């Protein structure tokens, strides 16, 4: 039995508690939130679980094996550091930290103390993303040409981050998980309409070798919610509409064929158009699957796919995208030698 | 009665002829195409119209008052020049020309000979775009925050242009027509997967003053067709889905409100969410309305909204987007003093 | 504080408990289910609430003020009877009972003991149905012409009822709530493909005076889920798509106009086609609103709109539809004098 | 070369002429319409084709081999009779005739004179319906359980027919083509809101043996256009949404499995839910394919699938549906012995 303390019971925390409660091998022993009104709700929903206002009670409690940190990103480093120093494994809401340095320090600390870090990249545990990884890994799509994500809605302004830090972690963590190649360069555009220095619209482009291009459109100001990703491969193409109830993934037998007749200037391009196929997806709630995997990794001393390094890779991309944006859309080249180990993607490993 | 010769009977030419035939004040006197097999189709469909293989017959014919040039863009300049030199008004398929210089020379030639140029920016004659202009002009949307267009499909490779020159003329001509502000800078990213130096995917961002940002996503490699535009304003927001049969335009009473309490660091951002409204649109075929307007402008000696200058403005944006793309995504600043008259938008004028 | 015992913790019971838990004025004191494995889940989720296998403990407990009966319909009568006999108010899952006689007896028993019956017609507490009632009541739609509901999906076979008793209670309770007229006749068709005497497809038509016609299409064998209702009125028409996330209700300024020129044989029919409007709906969870209303009615001694009489009216329609179906689709006339008080709809009253 | 005269140039006639013009083996020699203003349009579009106001010129012209009758149904019999008496093959708009007797007489007349009748059941020539027939014929769907069609829109009132005669011919002709079984009984409900004795809403149910049930929902008063058909089979299920641009047909690997344990009272019903598959459909215009087939049947002396008998079967179903409706929804049994040859479906034959 793994005893867990949960810090943060705002938007996502209740989901973490609900799922942990439903997993046989874990018990939620403490819920902590700094706001009394929220803590009161927690107590009403879970009268049998101990609650507290001060996170120190959680990180120092001898009963607790692991801490779930479900708070605003600006607090992650402090809370995670103290949890690790007190010998607790940590499950940290995405994005992992506010800076590369913070992430690196937490990774070092966890390694030193032989503790696990899992960053809550929930999407890679959905049936949809697992299917996408499968059809990329087994070469159903063929060489990738592009990955184009639109993630827009009338969102809630975050007080401590811009739209990139709020929405793009989803895309960066998914790309990190499904694409084996490493980005060679990055560029971002955007706008801030509130005037607080926090962009509410951003467009990010990643360049890869072998012609792969990735584009991410994130927007807090859209009147309609769109969660639409196009993935084009040499052999097939895929559409992922996450708002569809039943047919989230559609795979099209479409593409083009280049016939090379007597050199580059005589290329003939033809289109192929065939059937479409929508595979059945696993239905288990992604967060539940992820939390079970957290327990599994601790109990079997395994390194999670979404470990501190994965969290760091996402933080690095957020940091660079933000940097490009603040500099008016400068292209940022990712030096191969330096970045190699840092930007290695998580795509060669599979969640069991 | 205005006598018209049509050059080019491939994809769009038959639509031009069909609509001209249905307008009382015009008569199609000649159809020209350099491919005999296409010319044969024209003759079968319109046995009473004279056909010819050589465009010179059209541009020099004394019977002809105006020439519709519906051919690939690389031929526009040559055909248009000769038509103007022979005293014919011209209706030219978009994009107007392959270069800024060509467009400027045709404009000068038309002015000198007192002839009209209309560039076939068909979209600005659709019920949808007319309604968008109306709700921007009458301040229903309020100050504009962003304009975000996705125009993707499994397209036909054009042999003489990339995806920007093929698809973005639609967006540039619409933006030119509905947005009064002038862009201050432009940047484009993209990729070429065929390896012929012609990009099949491109992302273009335009920066304006007053925080307006425009983004255009054009893609020839998408397995699904998307024609989706989001327009965010201070007061209301608009979604234009051109593939919807009946409700192409939806206007949302959504937005955000900034309360300024004691300075910028205490801004409070709240969301508004109200009703949605989908106005009835005019149903007349856009091309028919445009061609009637062409006749109207010639008969009344009026300058069309979509005149050579409008065509030039679009060519200029295409040229700059292409330049940015080829330079690996460089930001291109549009010098105010130089560009002022050139980039003045067409938005202060209305089609009757 | 109203103390409630909940009997049945299968599919819907957990929702009832979760919502009751979130209402300040109530406390769930006992959860009962006859299946030990389900009871175990209840105990894990709510360790502080007493659980029991035998419903008698609930209905006889002196601590309990009201009982929520969330079990298969065949058990409702027995459970409800004993609860009422023991002085408990009851909240009963729809459909109310298996027969008209059972419903009538429960109503008499409740009246005798001065207790409240609420039948869980959840849909009439949704933002969508409340808006539909509003636009019918305030004559936005004008005189009603038709109400056409399609409610199909790949459903779970119920072991004790056919598709009419499973899905049509939704439609009958909604119609009862929003339509003031009374049906004059009813007819039903259907088919049973399993061969157990329980139809999995049924089509029900209700005839009203003043030309109103109601049609209900229920199907357990559809590969796709559809929850689509069309309501046509003389002035406007309404579409309710309950699977839409944000625009469930759309109101169309469409209809037809009859011009009577020199008698019936010279009627001229013209169509009107105007704007569409999608009103913002209330977002509170329907079941929560309903349970609050249950508490309100008990505390203020008010008769709920969805009382035993409403439950009886729905049971009556289900019974007659089933009768018509079993008789091969016979038209059943509803005798005015006899049925008047029984089939009086609930539409003249409003939920506060 | 087959010389054709076309009578009727209103809504559908121009499509017939346009497609005939595009077929190499035919020539349209005459266009006839009794309204001068419509005839003028025909002359402007086709200045080289002879036009006339009086249909007698067409049916008696010695140049004409076949007559296409594209007029209101009330005129079909008279026009078709005279064409056949004058030795012309006929292509008749659906529905074939206003009565069973008329259809039977035309069939006899055509047989006597060795002439072909083709009834314009256009839908059976669409890629969608051809695919449906294919997956029923090759047993992909397995035994059919139900066929449920919704065909509603804000339609144009027809002055001579009700909604059944206007919209249901599509469904009856499709069912006749794809379903091998014969209906055993029929029942129809509906309403007339204009008060002219012509229903604008109707619901038709057909009973077959082997548990197959067919339901047709036709409505002229819907604010939205729906063309949605569900087909449930023992092995797979199919959805046909004719308003989808690219994925009109979706085939679902869904269904249910009945395990018979110890007799009927211990049946266990389980659901299967697998992948979905959307096959690519042929894209040729249905009317063009049909008219080519008309020429083919005449030139090769073949009997079309959509011959007079198919037209008669559809007229019979329309007549019986109307009869049931007018009698307040009476069930009409189709006597096996009498109806056998008349109601034999067209489903055992294939269009080449």
Would you write up a description of this structure?
4 copies of one chain form a homotetramer. Chain A is α/β, with parallel strands linked by helices and 352 residues long. The longest helix of chain A is centred in the last third of the chain and has 19 residues, at 308-326. The first copy, chain A, folds into 2 domains: 2-115, Rossmann fold; 124-283 and 313-343, 2-Layer Sandwich (Dihydrodipicolinate Reductase, domain 2). Helices cover 33% and strands 31% of the residues of chain A. In chain A, helix 1 (13-22) packs across helix 8 (286-299) and helix 4 packs parallel to helix 5 (100-112). Chains A and B meet through strand 7, strand 8, strand 9, strand 10 and strand 11 of A and strand 7, strand 8, strand 9, strand 10 and strand 11 of B.
Explain the layout of strands and helices.
Four copies of one chain form a homotetramer.
Chain A: E1 2-7, H1 13-22, E2 26-32, H2 36-45, E3 50-52, H3 55-60, E4 66-69, H4 76-85, E5 89-93, H5 100-112, E6 117-120, H6 127-137, E7 144-154, H7 163-178, E8 183-191, E9 201-208, E10 213-219, E11 221-233, E12 237-241, E13 249-260, E14 267-278, H8 286-299, H9 308-326, E15 332-333, H10 336-343
Parallel strand pairs in A: 1-2, 1-4, 2-3, 4-5, 5-6, 7-10
Antiparallel strand pairs in A: 7-11, 8-9, 8-15, 9-10, 11-12, 12-13, 13-14
